[in-house]
Amino acid sequence: MTPDARNRIAVARETPPTGVAAGTVPAGVGLLDVAANRPRPLPLADLFLTFLRLGATSFGGPAMVANIREMSVTRKQWLDEAVFARGVALCQALPGATAMQTAAYVGLRIRGLAGGAIAYAGFGLPAFCAMLALSALYARSHDVGFAVSLFRALRVVVVAIVASAALTFATSYIKRRTDALIAAVAAAAFAVAVNPLLTISLAGLAGAIERDRTGVGDAVRSSRNGGAWRPVALMLGGAAVGMAVLLAVNRQLFTLAVAMLRIDVFAFGGGYASLPLMQHQFVRALAWLDAATFTDGVALGQVTPGPIVMTATFIGYVVAGAAGAVVATVAILFPSFVVLVLALPWFDRLQMSARFRGATHGAVASFVGLLGAVACRFAFAVDWTIATVLLALAAFVCLRLRVHTIWLVAGAVVYALLRA
After folding, report:
1. More confident call, 419 vs 243
2. Which residues, 6+ apart, have CB-to-CB distance to 166 below 8 Å?
3. Nearest alpha-carbon partner for 159 in 367, 377, 310, 365
């Protein structure tokens, strides 16, 4: 082989293929086999393990999205910054836990439907396992000495967490008098036991009508892509079979699954948006839990990695043991994944639709009122003393100063030790 030929081979091995920037792996490509000058897909096992590790170490709501970005854009270079940012915007506009949706989005971009499912499952599995273990421990020890003091303290911290979440929603989404009116009506409706699903639907309709009335139409009509319909139809068919089996085997599990499915479909605005719906459904409508127990479940959701929506695992365990935990978790995560898969090909159209943005904004505005009302209900489950008032105020201030939630839990443990 001549020296010139060897040099050409060496340059070919060191130079990315045409259209691929150095150090960047394009969307849809996991790893690049440069020597062969063709994409080599990222192994699904590697994708699963990556998101499993990330899910085991991610705490703190929006901070989880930052962790996914750092991994997928900065370290692994699976996606570029613009593609990731557009994905986060889409996930925020759809129902479900934003961090879970973002994990699925990354997987969908680099390995299609299988990659999305693998990333979704890997990111959520550590939270599920941790919550399942804590739920079993709670069932055996929540009425014993130190545990009583600890959960009393955690209930106080949860009041501060939900109140802080309501304030964050308000500062982010209450921009006009219409938004404030929607939030106030939603809070009043929740107080008089109106079904929150109806409240959210009407708020979304009001937001869409309001945007349409202002004369802001759709700016873009992107091409339609029907490629998502077949996998979605298969997933829905499998879900229908599973629901039929539950109905035949255990009606309580069927009712649990139906409730969680409905909650996830309407949980616009992230994981916290599911809390008012869970509280209404399982404490007030079905009366499967009392308010104090539900608040304890939310508290456990704060000490485990992953999104707060994993409170569903706790509810399922309290209602029907390990089987209930599995059914509740799958049901609370399934609809939002299907919606993401279905929405991704329509990405541009959704982003540019004024009516869609208006409906989403109205729905999220209603959650400001719902979260405020839930914070009040959680407060009623607390035995207030001077000490607990001070603990709640300290927790609220810490949250506004962006102190990590895990330190609030540590403070509750110290408080419990002092009070036990």
Report:
1. 243
2. 368, 371, 372, 375
3. 377
Measured distance CA(188)–CA(33) in Å, rounded: 59
Read off the pLDDT of residues 345-378 as tens digits, 9 standing for 90 and up: 887 676 677 787 788 888 888 888 888 888 888 8
**Cα 212–chain centre separation:** 29
Q: Beta partners for 268?
A: 95
Measured CA distances, 172 to 23, 166, 371 (Å): 35, 10, 14
CA–CA gap between residue 170 and residue 180 (Å, rounded): 9
**Cα gap 399→232, rounded to integer Å:** 39
What is the per-residue pLDDT for 409? 76
Identity of residue 169: F
- The neighbouring-strand residues paired with 40 are 31
Count of other CB atoms within 10 angstroms of residue 390: 12
Angle (CA) 135 369 386, round 5°: 65
Question: Is the Cβ–Cβ distance between 54 and 65 less than 8 Å?
Answer: no
pTM for this model (two decimals): 0.75
- Of the candidate ranges 143-147, 285-289, 334-338, the one whose mean pLDDT is the lowest: 143-147
User: DSSP character for 310?
Assistant: G
In the three-class reduction of DSSP (H, G, I as helix; E, B as strand; rest coil), residue 387 is classed as helix
What mean pLDDT comes out for the span 139-157? 75
**CA-to-CA distance for 412 and 150, rounded, in angstroms?**
7
pLDDT higher than threshold 50 for residue 29: no
E strand or H helix that includes residue 52: helix 44-57
Distance CA 284, CA 55 (A): 32
Provide the token pair at 198.
């109806």
CA distances from 171 to 165, 180, 386, 387 (A): 10, 11, 29, 29
The predicted-structure confidence for 315-332, as pLDDT tens digits, reads as follows 999 999 999 999 999 999
By C-alpha distance, which of 401, 380, 419 is closest to 153? 419
